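[Q] Does anyone have a clean structure-token version of this?
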Amino acid sequence: MESETQSDASFDDISRYQAILFESIGAEQAGNVPLPEIISTTDVRQEANARSEDIFQCYDTLHKILQRHEATIQRRWLKKNRRQRVEVLNNAWPSMAGVHRPDFAALRRESEAQVAQGTKLLDSFMWPYINQEDLSTNNALPLLLNARGLHSPSHFAAADLQAMQLGIKSNAIVPIFLDKHIIILNGFVENDRKYGELICWSGNPTASMWMEKKKQFLAGDGLLILKAQARLLSFLVKCCRQILHDHPEASLTSDSVPILPDPQFNPNIETTGFESLRTMAAEAPYRVPAQLDLDGIASLLAARTSAAEDHLWALREDPGYFTTTILDYKEHRLEIIKDLNGRDHPVLGRHRHNIFWARILGTVVIESYLCVELFAELSHQARALVSLQKRYAGDICPSRDLPEKLLEALLRFHHYLTQAVKGPLGVLRVSAVASPPLRRHFVRKPPADRDSPKVLVVAKLGKKGAVETELMWLLHMLWEKGDASFFDEMPLFVDELERMIESERGAQELITSYLSKVIGDISIISQCLNQLALYQPWARTWESDLEERQEKLKQEYEERTEPWVQMHLALKDLFPQTIDANEAIRLGDPTGNKIVYPIGKRRNKKNVEDLRQSERRLDAFWVEIDKAMAAKVSRFRGTAVQALLDSEWRILQRTGEWEEPENQHQQSQSTLHTHYEPIPSVYSNTHPGGSSEDISQPQKIKVKTRGTPRPLSTQALDVEALQQEDDRSDVQPTFSVDARAYNVFQTLFFDPAVTTTPGEVPWSHFLHAMSAAGFTAMKLYGSVWQFQPTNLNVERSIQFHEPHPRGKLPFTTARRYGRRLNRAYGWEGKMFVPINK
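[A] Here you go.
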């Protein structure tokens, strides 16, 4: 007691000093951090001890109830209708928020001034997962009971603080201040009355280290966690008592009632029958905090890398895909927006359109190159982390620091992720504003210099619909707050954006297919960051660990990405923003039907010539790109793009020459033949700093389009032999599938020798076909789906984009998906046969 009295005797002096300190940094001034409440050591310890005791008692009660009655609780909950469930929830938690993530609604509802004076919606910020919309579903409450009642409160300490981050960052929640003290919450395996102990770290090296490394919690944060857990556990006990209302109170926890085995939950499958990352994210607050899944991260990034490679390859191989991509980018450029006077941007004028197309072509090419580089690098680091985690598995313990090599690799990965997400966030900022459904809400300022690439856009005055307002707010929060302090919150905004797009048809119609892909990339990186945040208790220490290594990581990143910078500069020089078009701009300009690619039509002489002419034009365009890269990117060798372009198995499919069929029977029965061309070997004959003139042209392998193929040249046989060798070394199975799946694969691997062109493929049919072929499907974010092989002799996952907003794959898209499956797994149409044949 004497020491406590001495502590209180100096409290006035300490609090006066702290108040002066807070005033000096501008606390409680407009737009600044509110002044935290300053409480004495005695009061903090009393509150911590009281809440710790409440937690101990409630957890013990809940644990015993679930050991004996969990199965009964689950059965009864499933039998209740929504009205009955909401009644149980409101009785246990009066005035419970009604909507999912009520903290988002509260953030929009209250102004900064109102929050500074004290929010009236504190519950929404402290317990955002406590709401009627989520808890009245079949799974949420049973999951929450199971997690909180069968795992000690220590498991949830970091997660409970993380759940309040939106409230803390917005100053709706302001932790109390007590200097030189921490509260012990991490590291308790069982329910323990020492949970929540207040310790002074002054003169205590161990406690001081815990504070600096955030291995334990500051007094203010610790009290918030204890408060949150005490009320939550009390709520769950009340819910159990209501659901088991006909059981005598004593029988709920009596030792005379036998302890039963834990009931099993049904797997998390949506109405489509496939897993959804969005649904998993929605249920995460009600489960035990997940552990870091490095294998899942590696699989996710490997599949995204493959998609980036296929995108770049399709841009080089498929004139139709190239044109569609270019025109899609055009529709999301700020120059498309009318100015304050209702006029077009100067670069859209007749004599200046070359400047516009130079900007678009340069953006498409550099984004396709950098996307391959970025995700290949992230994928490489993720695989290295998997290896390191396995190597040090025996040394990883929550009570010890991570092995240094593993820690450095994790911090490096985190640094690269935070740098990587800035790209798609910047693209979102521009493309969302300019997208066809949203551009009507914005207006462009006339440029002072008509040749300037800077485009200034402002929002129009006027009312928006509720859906538009909420959607624009979420998008704005993502692109405006995409800085280091926002990365912890970013997964919350991504989850909320995805939930809105999925649940609100009006929101779906406002998101174009292009925007959906951009959001998909943001969500993939966000998911990786979220996974790292799950690596507790070490994730809490990374802020200080990163600060110590910031300069080293920054220098390493700059050195590693130097070739990427060179690529960007080379393409900037190749696409000058001048009135006169150079060869690259002339070849890439898709206007005026310069690229006609009737790939979906039955072959005839005219169609074949159109196909071949478009392919020649596209090849010539990429030769210009390759020349620029070889001449100006001194460190191109060793990049992911160079490895892709030099891959022996990456061979361009090109349309063969047309030859008139000898008879009508041959015309109807003959098989389409193509020829294959390796890309120009620009890089294999040059060295860093070498000349771009030493470029070998592609060796064409000509095969007749109709009738009997012509003999191949000796050099051509080398490529054909390579293909035959691949066929022998990778014997493909035959898939017996039902009629619906068979029709899908016939469209994916369409033979243009037939008389009719197939129609669209419903996305649900595509999912069914991939499942029939041995894949499990998971909906990620945006339009991205990931397909994981299960009973196939392959390990590589693959990602496809769901068509948006109609839900059907056009034939041209289905054909590209077929090509991707061919490159990834060697699949062909003849491998799929109907079950009844």
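[Q] Thanks! Anything notable?
[A] Residues 291-588 form one domain.
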